[in-house]
């Protein structure tokens, strides 16, 4: 095709535009519009107005959106929507059915107002969802079908029945992307060449147990009706799928099988469903190929019979195959490919497999490089993975798959063998590329020299002499191709055989077991190529048989039954193809019979075959011969005339492999290759068992001999056994040690014994799944006895010639027709929408041609005027006995009287001699009446039963009510008397209470008036005090909580009231840091508490500051801390909650720790990389910042555990402690984020280094301390021993705030405490008789109370030279976690020596 033709084809190609009208068209989700590349938006809008019947007085525009709910781009009238659509991504074009997906490209139809604005009319997304839900409700039958002008889903409902109306109805459905249409119970499928989203599990559930025609036509509806008809009628069903090549038969078969298995899995799934689903991809990979008409054309026919139990679950299945097209293996026409499996293997094999199988590129194989290599849109690697998975589901082990792929590689390399004539001999040939022979020999495991001899010479036997004759050049290529075809055909037969064995159920082996089945026939479609050969002749003959079967059931048998029953009927003429079938298959002058005769003559040729055809059928109207001298003939099939070339007819009809080739393959060391050459599977299996037995016996004897030799040390040579040990390669023999060899032989013995026992003992109680045995093999051989096409090629019997290919093919078709005749058929007619395989393009001429030759017009007429529903009188009475009057007998008059009584239209039914004939409309009406009557009776029964229950409940309730009323009346009388007494008591009490309240109120008012007027005056020591009330806020010293707000006081009139200094509130968040600290507490208590808890419990928690805690828990903990820090228990909260609260506190500071004043300085220092902790304006910020940085250093040191590096900590805490001032530009603050983060990180790293250095110093000091301690111990032994101060606890005053920090007593103690050199926790200073002692507190009791709350004795160690007892007043100051406190100690202080 030239560039100009290609350009015209692209311009003429039609595309489907999905335009969403929104609220402009009620009930329509989208309207598909056919448009070409140059179709403008105005033309598309005109088509939409006509299709949707919109108001033409209004103006409309097309809008393009690229995201659901996104911006809309209005198209100009001259814009081309198809060109805009071609710019969309591929994912958007493939997934155009989603709602709200990521890239949701679509066209919208909008209304344009008079002012030029666009009227949107609400949310498109909400409208789409509402419309989709309405459509689902309509499909489920909850809403009525919308009235409109859409064509009916059943062609029998057309008001006018012509070819034009049928074609227009199909075209209208197709443009709405509805590819299914009914003709009564017949389903028409038009291949859209595009996947439509109507096959998901939602549709499987939707069409479950619905009558045909109730919902929209679908392939699932046919499968569902067949399944339930099988269960109800207990009769086998079959679904016949027919159509041209490329009409979608294989895909329809897959959908049917999926739905049938899904229906079975509603209950108990037996596991066979997965094998059935896996068998489809396996058979497609090995039996399908790309042709000029179809990218996935079945090059063989198959009949899948699914067997069911009576409960409806799948119990087994069976696959029957017909006539694999072997010639495709060695030769392909233009724009065609070889079988899929070769391309899958070459694209998806691993490097190890490529090396093991010697795989090359597709263009390097002669059998693959004849035309095209790829198909648009396919993913070969994914297909190979899918094939591997499917083979695993069917039961092929990895070793078996390896053997299969090795054989496929051998076939491809076999095709690469090329021949040439020898230079010194004219009648002999040689191989051009001998390097291929070792590869083929290795893959087939045959001897290389034997392979060479078999491919170049043949052995013939004359009288008393055996000759070796070299092949001619043409003969050698034929022998090579014949060997490759036979190998592939045998492999395909073996795959089908093993698949059937995996699908076999043991119940199928029993003769008395009842089998219910549904068969699905997917046979090759009618074909007409430029060059049609023997394969197309057989394929088209099979389609003739199927068309004849269709005509028999739809026309001939139907009308004969009408005449036999004596009803009024006018015959409908139809195209009978019996003459064409007789021409091809009726003996003795049938074309197949004449072909077999010519194959028996050695001197026959193509011309003699053609001459015989002419002599026998010169005047037959179904056959023609070209006027020119051409070796071809023309058959007038039901689908049209097809020209067949007689070249290779005879060779393909008797395509047998030579005996020397068969002998070569049987000599292979590969048991798999040998098994493919076997004719009888039972005999092959028995021979394998026998061979395994003798090999095990020899291995056992050899092992015994070696064991004896090893034990006695005798090395005598013994005679070689007549049985050779199991064969293995030389490399394997070298690697086998005596021990491993013995183990291998033991394993072989055990396996052989198991096989023998399993095969011989048929009553064995142990059952092995998928194990070969004689019984199952014999059963499978019997059901495939008619199909011996491949096995006959290997037939070596010399007295009787094997049957021809055509004879075996006719036998297969005859058995198929017998199976179909024993079942109730359903027909699925598949049509091609266009010849170019373009998506959603409807070619009127092509579809009309298919409608004509399949007789669809006549089919619609007979379905429209005929009676598709039939009941015998007994079945009718039994089915509708609920509607029939009591005593109605199954007679003609009784049934007619019933029809007259219910006013059934006479045109919709007829009553024959033994059968009632109904049309579908009348049957549905009877079913509706039956359903209504059954519901009426059910409601009546329910009403009666409910009335009985309600009556019983009413009687019980009335009895109970009487009892309750009697008890209530008695109780009411008692209550009335009690109420009268209570009213009297209440009246007296209320009077007393009111008088008391009045007196209290009067007194209080009087006192208030006196206080207000200043009349309450007390004189004391010459002072006149005035009673008043002050608002003195008093706070707790420990928790800063408010204790009371007001107090009464007497103020002297001569003096002013003193001022008070209120304490700070307990609020912790959002306050200045100075309010939370003091001279004694440089770090806020909240910060110290949170950091200590995190360092104690969360130091090793992963992501301690990266992860956030629960929001509710954070809020709860923050409120608790704001109320009282000391009473909050942090053990009740998650560590991440505590960390989040700490970060919130830092963020809520009015001035950050690294203050606003130093912000610019820090950034400038960061630029110079000389950051250090500059002292903030107050020491409070510095102390808190140092504590926080030290905490972060400890966190960063555990990075290996908590995954918090210094950088991660800087990212978290930089916004908290180094915030920019509000005066800085926000854009500048965003740019400074990296600098602030780096600054904090640098500080952490610097402090981390100092921390590590201090740790080293501490270790050195501890070492020095231990040395000094040991020396001091020796010194102290010579000095006075320390004593123990025993203080009476009754003399200890409690540490209340009576002594303020400004008092002299506190100041003296604090001075003594500050002067000491050891300010550590739990240390104290004791002043006894003016002497100061420093000691460490020890609690010798086991109670949990702290020392300043304890009622026990308090002991202090200190160095003292006094040993006497004295009674004096002692000042005691202590330093604890809560700060310094003051104690007043009086009484006896006993000092004695510690023992």
From TrEMBL:
* Pfam name, any one: Myosin_head
Q: Where does the source fall among the domains of life?
A: Eukaryota
Q: Which UniProt keywords apply?
A: Actin-binding, ATP-binding, Coiled coil, Cytoplasm, GTPase activation, Membrane, Metal-binding, Motor protein, Myosin, Nucleotide-binding, Repeat, Synapse, Transmembrane, Transmembrane helix, Zinc, Zinc-finger
Q: Where does ATP bind?
A: 243-250
Renumbered to this chain, region (Actin-binding) spans 813-835
Q: Name one GO molecular function term.
A: GTPase activator activity
Membrane-topology descriptor: Single-pass membrane protein
Residue span(s) of domain Ras-associating: 13-114
Bias (Basic residues) occurs at 705-721
Q: Which GO terms describe its biological process?
A: cell junction organization; establishment of epithelial cell apical/basal polarity; intracellular signal transduction
Domain (Rho-GAP): residue spans on this chain:
1071-1251
Region spans: Disordered = 705-737
Write out the annotated subcellular location.
Answer: Cell projection, Growth cone; Cytoplasm; Membrane; Synapse
Q: Which GO terms describe its cellular component?
A: actin filament; axonal growth cone; cytoplasm; membrane; myosin complex; synapse
Q: Which InterPro entries match?
A: C1-like_sf, IQ_motif_EF-hand-BS, Kinesin_motor_dom_sf, Myo9, Myosin_head_motor_dom-like, MYSc_Myo9, P-loop_NTPase, RA_dom
Q: Where in the numbering of this chain does the Myosin motor domain appear?
A: 150-931
> Is-annotated flag, keyword Glycoprotein?
no
As for family, the record states: Belongs to the TRAFAC class myosin-kinesin ATPase superfamily. Myosin family.
PANTHER family from the xrefs? UNCONVENTIONAL MYOSIN-IXA, UNCONVENTIONAL MYOSIN-IXB-LIKE PROTEIN
Q: What does this protein do?
A: Myosins are actin-based motor molecules with ATPase activity. Unconventional myosins serve in intracellular movements. Regulates Rho by stimulating it's GTPase activity in neurons. Required for the regulation of neurite branching and motor neuron axon guidance.
User: What protein name is recorded for this chain?
Assistant: Myosin IXA
Species: Cyclopterus lumpus
């Amino acid at each position: 095709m030239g560039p100009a033709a290609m350009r015209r084809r692209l311009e003429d190609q039609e595309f489907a535009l999905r335009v969403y009208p929104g609220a402009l068209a009620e009930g329509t989700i989208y309207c598909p519009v056919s448009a070409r590349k140059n179709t403008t938006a105005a033309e598309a809008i005109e088509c939409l107005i006509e299709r949707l019947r919109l108001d033409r007085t209004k103006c409309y525009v097309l809008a393009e959106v690229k995201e659901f709910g996104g911006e809309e781009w209005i198209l100009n009238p001259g814009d081309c929507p198809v060109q805009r659509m071609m710019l969309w991504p591929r994912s958007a074009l493939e997934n155009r059915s989603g709602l709200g997906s990521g890239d949701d490209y679509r066209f919208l139809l909008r209304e344009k107002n008079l002012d030029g604005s666009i009227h949107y009319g609400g949310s498109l997304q909400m409208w789409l969802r509402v419309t989709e839900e309405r459509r689902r409700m309509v499909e489920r039958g909850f809403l009525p079908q919308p009235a409109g002008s859409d064509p009916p889903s059943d062609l029998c409902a057309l008001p006018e029945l012509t070819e034009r109306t049928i074609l227009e109805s199909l075209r209208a459905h197709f443009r709405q992307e509805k590819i299914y249409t009914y003709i009564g119970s017949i389903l028409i499928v038009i291949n859209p060449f595009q996947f439509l989203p109507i096959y998901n599990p939602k549709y499987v559930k939707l069409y479950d147990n619905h009558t045909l025609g109730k919902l929209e036509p679908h392939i699932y509806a046919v499968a569902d009706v067949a399944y339930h008809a099988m269960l109800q009628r207990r009769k086998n069903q079959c679904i016949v799928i027919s159509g041209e090549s490329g009409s979608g038969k294989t895909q329809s078969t897959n959908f049917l099988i999926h739905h049938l298995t899904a229906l079975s899995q509603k209950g108990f799934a037996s596991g066979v469903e997965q094998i059935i689903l896996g068998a489809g991809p396996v058979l497609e990979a090995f039996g399908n190929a790309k042709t000029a008409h179809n990218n996935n054309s079945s090059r063989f026919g198959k009949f899948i019979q699914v067997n069911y139990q009576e409960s409806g679950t799948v119990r087994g299945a069976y696959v029957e195959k017909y006539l694999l097209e072997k010639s495709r293996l060695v030769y392909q026409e233009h724009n065609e490919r070889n079988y899929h499996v070769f391309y899958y293997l070459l694209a998806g094999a691993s490097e190890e497999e490529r090396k093991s199988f010697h795989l090359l590129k597709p263009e390097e194989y002669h059998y693959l490089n004849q035309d095209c290599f790829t198909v648009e849109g396919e993913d070969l690697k994914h297909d190979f993975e899918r094939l591997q998975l499917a083979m695993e589901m069917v039961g092929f082990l990895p070793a078996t798959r390896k053997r299969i792929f090795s054989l496929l590689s051998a076939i491809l390399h076999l095709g690469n063998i090329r021949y040439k004539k020898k230079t010194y001999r004219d009648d002999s040939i040689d191989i051009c590329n001998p390097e291929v022979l070792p590869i083929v020999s290795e893959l087939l495991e045959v001897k290389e020299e034997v392979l060479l001899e078999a491919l170049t010479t043949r052995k013939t036997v004359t009288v008393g002499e055996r000759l070796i004759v070299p092949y001619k050049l043409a003969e050698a290529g034929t022998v090579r191709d014949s060997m490759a075809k036979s190998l592939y055909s045998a492999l395909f037969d073996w795959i089908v055989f093993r698949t059937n064995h995996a699908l076999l159920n043991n119940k199928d082996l029993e003769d008395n077991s009842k089998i219910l089945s549904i068969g699905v026939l997917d046979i090759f479609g009618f074909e007409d190529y430029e060059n049609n050969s023997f394969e197309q002749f057989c394929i088209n003959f099979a389609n003739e048989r199927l068309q004849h079967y269709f005509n028999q059931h739809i026309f001939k048998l139907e009308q004969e039954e009408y005449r036999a029953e004596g009803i009024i009927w006018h015959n409908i003429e139809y195209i009978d193809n019996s003459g064409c079938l007789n021409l091809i298959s009726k003996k003795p002058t049938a074309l197949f019979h004449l072909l077999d005769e010519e194959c028996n003559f050695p001197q026959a040729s193509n011309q003699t075959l053609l001459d015989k055809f002419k002599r026998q059928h010169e005047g037959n109207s179904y056959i023609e011969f070209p006027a020119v001298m051409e070796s071809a003939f023309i058959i007038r099939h039901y689908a049209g005339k097809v020209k067949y070339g007689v070249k290779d007819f005879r060779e393909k009809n008797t395509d047998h492999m030579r005996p020397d080739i068969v002998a070569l393959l049987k000599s292979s060391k590969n048991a798999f290759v040998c098994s493919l050459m076997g004719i009888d599977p039972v005999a092959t299996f028995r021979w394998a068992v026998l061979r395994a037995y003798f090999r095990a016996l020899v291995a056992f004897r050899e092992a015994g001999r070696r064991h004896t030799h090893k034990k006695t040390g005798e090395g005598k040579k013994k005679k070689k056994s007549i049985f050779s040990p199991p064969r293995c390669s030389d490399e394997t023999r070298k690697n086998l040690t005596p021990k491993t060899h013995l183990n291998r032989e033991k394993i072989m013995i055990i396996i052989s014994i198991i096989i023998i026992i399993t095969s011989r003992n048929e009553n064995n109680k142990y059952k092995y799944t998928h194990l070969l045995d004689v019984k199952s093999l014999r059963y499978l051989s019997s059901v495939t006895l008619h199909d011996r096409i491949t096995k006959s090629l290997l037939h070596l019997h010399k007295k009787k010639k094997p049957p021809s290919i055509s004879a075996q093919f006719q036998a297969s078709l005859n058995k198929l027709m017998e199976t179909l005749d024993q079942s109730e058929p359903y027909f699925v007619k598949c049509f091609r929408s266009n010849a170019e395989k373009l998506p959603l393009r409807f070619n009127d001429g092509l579809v009309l041609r298919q409608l004509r030759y399949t007789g669809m017009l006549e089919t619609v007429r007979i379905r429209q005027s005929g009676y598709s529903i039939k009941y015998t009188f007994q079945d009718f009475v039994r089915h509708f006995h609920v509607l029939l009057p009591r005593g109605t007998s199954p007679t003609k008059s009784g049934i007619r009287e019933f029809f007259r009584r219910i006013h059934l239209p006479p045109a919709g039914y007829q009553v024959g001699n033994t059968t009632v004939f109904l049309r579908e409309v009348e049957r549905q009406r009877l079913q509706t009446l039956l359903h209504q009557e059954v519901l009426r009776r059910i409601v009546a029964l329910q009403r009666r039963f409910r009335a009985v229950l309600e009556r019983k409940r009413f009687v019980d309730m009335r009895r109970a009510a009487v009892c309750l009323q009697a008890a209530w009346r008695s109780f009411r009388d008692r209550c009335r008397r009690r109420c009268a007494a209570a009213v009297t008591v209440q009246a007296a009490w209320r009077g007393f209470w009111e008088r008391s309240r009045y007196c209290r109120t009067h007194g209080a008012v009087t006192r208030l008036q006196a206080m207000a007027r200043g009349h309450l005056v007390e004189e004391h020591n010459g002072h006149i005090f005035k009673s008043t009330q002050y608002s003195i806020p008093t706070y707790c010293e420990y928790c800063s909580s408010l204790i009371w707000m007001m107090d009464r006081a007497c103020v002297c009139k001569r003096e002013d009231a003193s001022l008070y200094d209120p304490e700070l509130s307990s609020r912790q968040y959002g306050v200045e840091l100075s309010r939370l600290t003091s001279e004694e507490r440089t770090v806020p208590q909240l910060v110290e508490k949170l950091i200590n808890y995190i360092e104690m419990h969360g130091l090793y928690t992963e992501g301690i500051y990266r992860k956030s805690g629960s929001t509710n828990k954070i809020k709860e903990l923050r409120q608790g801390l704001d109320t009282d820090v000391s009473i909050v228990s942090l053990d009740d909260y998650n560590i991440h909650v505590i960390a989040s609260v700490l970060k919130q506190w830092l963020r809520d500071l009015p001035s950050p720790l690294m203050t606003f004043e130093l912000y610019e300085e820090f950034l400038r220092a960061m630029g110079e990389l000389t950051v250090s902790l500059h002292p903030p304006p107050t020491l409070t910020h510095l102390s808190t910042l140092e504590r926080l940085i030290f905490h972060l250093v400890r966190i960063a040191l555990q990075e290996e555990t908590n995954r918090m590096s210094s950088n991660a900590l800087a990212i978290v805490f930089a916004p908290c402690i180094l915030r920019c001032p509000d005066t800085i530009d926000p854009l500048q603050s965003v740019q400074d984020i990296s600098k602030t983060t780096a600054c904090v990180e640098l500080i952490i790293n610097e402090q981390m280094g100092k921390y590590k250095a201090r740790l080293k110093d501490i270790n050195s000091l501890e070492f020095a301390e231990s040395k000094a301690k040991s020396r001091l111990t020796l010194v102290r032994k010579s000095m006075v021993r320390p004593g123990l101060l025993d203080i009476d606890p009754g003399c200890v005053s409690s540490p209340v705030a009576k002594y303020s920090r400004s008092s002299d007593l506190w100041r003296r103690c604090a001075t003594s405490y500050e002067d000491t050199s050891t300010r550590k926790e739990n240390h104290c200073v004791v002043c006894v008789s003016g002497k100061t002692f420093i000691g460490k507190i020890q609690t010798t009791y086991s109670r949990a109370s702290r020392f300043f709350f304890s009622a026990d004795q308090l002991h202090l160690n200190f160095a003292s030279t006094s040993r006497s007892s004295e009674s004096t007043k002692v000042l005691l100051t202590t330093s604890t976690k809560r700060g310094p406190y003051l104690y007043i100690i009086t009484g006896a202080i006993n000092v004695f020596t510690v023992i």
